[in-house]
Design brief:
Elements (H helix, E strand, L loop, with lengths): L19 H62 L3 H12 L10
Helix pairs in contact: 1-2
C-alpha cells in the first residue's frame, strides 16, 4: 500500500538572482555613452572654432566694403541734399529699391 501513496518529491528552491550585474552594466553603459557624447561635443566645438577663425578675414573684408558703401551713400545723400540733380536721382532709385541711407547729422 505504500506504493499507492504519491511520493513527495523535493523540488529545488527557485534560484535567487542578484540585480547587481544588470545595474552595473546599465551604469557602465550610461558612463560610456556620456563620455562619447562629451568627446563628440568637444570635437564639434573645435571644428566650430576653426571655422570661425577661417571666416574672420572674410568678415573683416565684408565690413570694410560695407563701411565704404555707407560712406559713398552718405556722401551721395549729402550731395543730393545740397541740390545735385544726379545725386538726387541715385538717392531716389536707392529708396525705390528699399535701401536706407543714413544721412549725416547736420
Amino acid at each position: 500500500m505504500e506504493r499507492d501513496q504519491p511520493r513527495a518529491t523535493a523540488q529545488p528552491a527557485p534560484r535567487q538572482y542578484s540585480s547587481f550585474l544588470p545595474q552595473l552594466l546599465t551604469g557602465l553603459t550610461l558612463v560610456v555613452w556620456l563620455g562619447l557624447q562629451a568627446f563628440q561635443q568637444v570635437g564639434e566645438r573645435q571644428q566650430l572654432a576653426s571655422l570661425d577663425a577661417a571666416i574672420a578675414p572674410q568678415e573683416q573684408g565684408a565690413q570694410k566694403v560695407r563701411n565704404s558703401l555707407e560712406a559713398i551713400a552718405t556722401a551721395t545723400a549729402k550731395l543730393a541734399s545740397e541740390g545735385n540733380a544726379n545725386a538726387q536721382i541715385v538717392v531716389d532709385q536707392l529708396k525705390k529699391r528699399g535701401v536706407t541711407i543714413n544721412t549725416p547729422a547736420q
